[in-house]
Amino acid sequence: MRRFKRWLLGAALLVALPVQADWYFEVDKQSHWQASLSTRIAAIEEAFNGEVGVYVQDLASGEAFSWKAEAPWYLASLVKVPVAAEILARRQAGELTLDERLTLTPRHFVDGAGPVNWHDPGTPISIGYLLEQMITVSDNTASDMLIERAGLDAVNARARAMIAAAGGDPGKLGPITTLVGVRQGVYGQMHPHARELAGTDFMALRQHRLAERPAALASRLGVARQSLAAADYDTAFEAYEQGGENTAPLAVYGDLLATLHTGGLADLDAAERQALVEMMLRTRSGEARLKRGLGEEFRFAHKTGTQHRRSCDAGLAFASSSVASSSVAASSAGPWVVVACTRGPVALAPHEQALARVGEALVVTGALGHTTSDEP
Predict the structure, then answer these.
(1) What pTM was estimated for this model as a whole?
(2) Domain boundaries, given as residue ranges, for the chain
(3) Which residues of 354-368 are buried (b: 16+ CB within 10 A; e: fewer)?
(4) Which of 301, 262, 273, 308 is nearest to 82 (CA)?
(5) Domain boundaries 31-78+249-365, corresponding CATH code
(6) Tell me: the pLDDT tens digits for 136-171?
(7) Across the chain, which distance is largest between two alpha carbons, in Å?
(8) Which residue has the higher pLDDT, 334 or 321?
């Protein structure tokens, strides 16, 4: 779990100095690999020509590494993990089954990846299928259907509970919204009437190039182009992000992921947590991100996120059996929470290349429990 605050350490020392001091050292220490990793991340960030944020925690020892991980980042589709957790908690409670079918309606359609948009309105789709598509290919329409089934307040409560269970501060997590709500929020920075548009309207707007979208929005709303508050999409998204929706420090999101492994919530038991981890192991989006850098030495149960000039990849890294039993394996065998996000160019490729290099750096420096031959 994350480090105790200094004042809590002081109180613990008064009653049990030897035990608490040793434990705190393990959590708060900075092993030799941290300096090397910092150097490599700095080089990756410079080459990327943008910002990189990284958080890593060894869940066996508690040791953590942070690179800009205490500042808020836009999480994009990483918010789909607590959506899935809430659905699985409802299954545990007997309130739903994965065979239950939800009816796709025109209001559910959201632009983005995934096959759910290929279905006709009126199609009944199982919760199990929607869960799989939301996690493994980041289907936005599936996500909004599941959020509607669970309730947005419940999803936010689930996320906060998972953060708190790992000792984090849930107050640092911004409000999670629907995926169509993101579009309404961004375009709403240009004109307040955009908050009333539906997902199909935003699908139409996405057909235009970025530079053309303000004019296309004005046309769709029937207002003058000059009446838009934000001059371009970049300005609108920056203003939206500053509002705090779907944002959190990477370290706080790391606490949420830690709870998937360590537990601590009676209404989300080991079986349901394992079901979500296995689903995340099947993720097919973001193959060129952290997963590529980690290589075959690790199994990565992860979720990706992509938005305008922003990309994320986050999950639990497990050493493969060959690494765990090798002569270079460290005393810690993880697993490790890994959260990484980038903010910079419009094109996606540089983001994915930077994230892949972060994955490589984690392996080479020994941040994930062992070193390769490239690092002393």
Answers:
(1) 0.89
(2) 31-78+249-365, 179-242
(3) bbbbbbbbbbbbbbb
(4) 273
(5) 3.40.710.10
(6) 999 999 999 999 999 999 999 999 999 999 999 999
(7) 71
(8) 334
